[in-house]
Design brief:
Blueprint (H helix, E strand, L loop, with lengths): L1 H23 L5 H47 L8 H7 E6 L4 E6 L22 E5 L4
Antiparallel strand pairs: 1-2, 2-3
Helix pairs in contact: 1-2
Amino acid sequence: MIERNKQTIQENSDYLVKSFLHFDSGVISESEYQMFKKSFNIQIEIAEGNIAALRNELSRLEDDTTAKRLIERFLEHGNIEELNRRVIAGLVKSVVVNSNKDVSVNFRYASFDLPYDTLSTFSNEPSTQSHTTKGMVV
């Protein structure tokens, strides 16, 4: 669809140039040229609007795909039986042990802090949340 709209833009741009050349050589009058110009510009604007709408829809679908991958990743780790490097790397952004032996765990996604029944509200925005467990080593 985007390619078809690009083709429409190109065709109407070509028609616009040709109509100017016909006006310039006296084949069509100025009023005819203005009428053609307006018509071709309208077609170009419509096609550009269609392209913008299609790109927005593609972007939305890509965002939905990212959210689905996040949910799949979360569900994959939903019943963790063994805490291994792959699980940690997938869920945890960083672990900080402070001088007073507090441990802060920063998760990759804020959504991991939500109850299981709120999966539909997942966000793929990086988390600014952290959890501190006094004296515990993760």
